[in-house]
Amino acid sequence: MIPLLLVLALAPPPPQSADSAVAAGTARPVIDIAVERRLAASLGLQVGDTVRIGSAPDSLSTVARVAAVYEPPADPATVLRRDYRVRLHLPDLAALLGTPDRVDRLGLVLQPGVAADSVVRRLNAAAFGYRAYGSREIASGSSQTFRVISRFHRAIAVISVAASAIFLLCIMLLKVEERRLDAAVLRFIGIRRRTIFLALLLEAVIVAVVGSMAGALFAFVASAATNAYYQHFFETRLIFSMVTPGIVRFGVGLSLLLGIGAGALAAARLVRTRPLVLWGRG
Amino acid sequence: MDLRWSFRNLRRHPLRTVLSIAGIAVASAMLCDMIMLSGGLETSFARLMLLRGYQIRVTPQGTLPLDSEATMPGITMLARAIAADPDVVAVAPVVATSLYGSPTPHSALLTLFGYGIDPANQGLYQLESGADLLPGDSLGVLLGAPAARLMGAAVGDTIALVSQLDPQVAGAAAERRLVVRGMVRWLYDHEGQPSVGTIVPVMQALGGIRQADRASVLMVKARDGADVPAVVARLRGAHPGVEVSGVDDLVRHFRERMVYFRQLALILGTLSLGIATLLIGTLLAITVNERLPEIATLRALGVSRRSVIRDVLIEGAALTMAGGVIGVVLGLGTARVLDRILTSFPGLPAAFSFFVPRPGALAAGLAATLTAGVLAGLYPAWLAARAPIAATLRAEAT
Prior knowledge:
The complex is a heterodimer.
Chain A: E1 7-10, H1 18-23, E2 31-36, H2 37-43, E3 50-54, E4 62-70, E5 86-88, H3 90-97, H4 116-125, H5 135-142, H6 144-177, H7 180-188, H8 193-234, H9 245-272, H10 275-279
Parallel strand pairs in A: 2-4
Antiparallel strand pairs in A: 1-3, 2-5, 3-4
Chain B: H1 3-12, H2 14-49, E1 56-60, H3 75-83, E2 88-102, E3 110-117, E4 125-130, E5 140-144, H4 145-151, E6 158-166, E7 171-186, E8 195-199, H5 200-207, E9 217-222, H6 228-238, E10 242-246, H7 247-257, H8 259-290, H9 292-300, H10 305-342, H11 359-376, H12 378-385, H13 389-397
Parallel strand pairs in B: 3-8, 5-7
Antiparallel strand pairs in B: 1-9, 1-10, 2-3, 2-6, 2-9, 4-7, 5-8, 6-7
Helix pairs in contact in B: 1-10, 2-7, 2-8, 2-10, 2-11, 8-10, 8-11, 8-12, 9-13, 10-11, 10-12
């Protein structure tokens, strides 16, 4: 129950301690709160400190004691907002907001074996002022943002793959073309076209294998750097980049396919050309 | 040697040239997209904020407009105080709350989003059909197209709006039967958001915040030519209990929230530029290596080093220019696809764009690609110019 705004302010040094004021019956009771680590660090709060809190800047009348500093679970839905959070006991928050006996949502645990969908249907049939959702429906709704991000990343990946593929084709073509003179000499001394083709192809395979392995290694390093940077930037343990075996298989497979394919094409073109032309005298 | 020499070299290896141009085009398209993404977010957001000419937003302390359920009390007095500023020409209060609607007395309740507005000063909607609300019209309601579709309501129909439902007594604390006066387009709504609008007091009553005279936002319009940052500073000083933000402040907050996209744009843009540079550099280095005998012959005939360098650089620039121009066109096309994907973000105003083509930025992108192409040609050009004439010709002769 935390959607409403809470404005939090550090309490000025009180003339008498909050506890003694409460004991004397001159102040409202001090409530216990748990403060998120980032907020505690930002305000220099420690367990035992007192703060004044309220739902508006002009109503900071409730005195609260920091009972705990906690690390919230990593949540991708809120990582970009970077809001600070404070946890209160439900009755304390309800009293603070002036909304006793109201909550934003209730979580239900069903008896073992009971189908969630049927309970959701039954509750919604009788619902007035609330709506019941199954966990799967909520997960689907709240993951919409990530589905969009994921589609965007896929689209960017398509462009990157296209650029890399063309780059790879170009490099392999040039790499083989660079061997024109060598190919000419080999042909002059009687080496068969097939042997030259296989030699050039082997060279392309080695370049493609070494290149794709280096690429995979670079991906792991880049992924680790990305995670380190964003985890530090957003102060979270969320994983931003993950190199999965599937991604490695796709990347290495595509590189090998394109590299070897381009190498084979270029080698075939080269061995079909007359040696004198390769030598530049044709 | 002249420019034709460079172009003849490019024509000599058509497959190589076409592949290089294609590679540069894709890299350049990516660069253009990332340039559009990095600045587009802010441009689009600022445009959206200024759609109706309101340059300042007043919100509850510590919040952004409609970013939380927080409201400000004593809104009539606050609006009056702000309107007294000599540079302020209009103050538009906005109450935002969630409520329920019912097209007929016994039909099921539908979840709606409600805006309370002052019809005389509003910056939230454009009238599409029917009539606008009149100040003090406590019996009228405006519907956006999604709400009208959901409720099956048209201009002239009567609908019921209810709120503060109590499940224990199965009743609503607030209910109003209102006549649909007009259909509007809500400027800040996301795709399919079912919004309705009434005058401020009606929505305050529905939201249960009438007594404290609360509102979610005040939109403030400064007179033409006014120094808006100065007005913002003045209002901040006069009203420390609320958050006063100019469009620049809101854009700054938005930029912080969208930092991921800006950084992604920077990283991918840099990578694209790097790939284009690498491609051009590799291509020219190998081409120069292949043509060393030819270059040595030309040098032996008296062609200056300067001319050799110039021609290699021109070759790189020609490749980059061709790829860059194609890349800009390709980038504009892919930006539309990428924009369609990102604007499907839940909760994002439908009028918002991530990729905004700005001629200046695109020209800067093209210039950056061209510069990268010329820089990539420097090393191959240096190799060409430093080629040992005698040794190369002797090797060529044997």
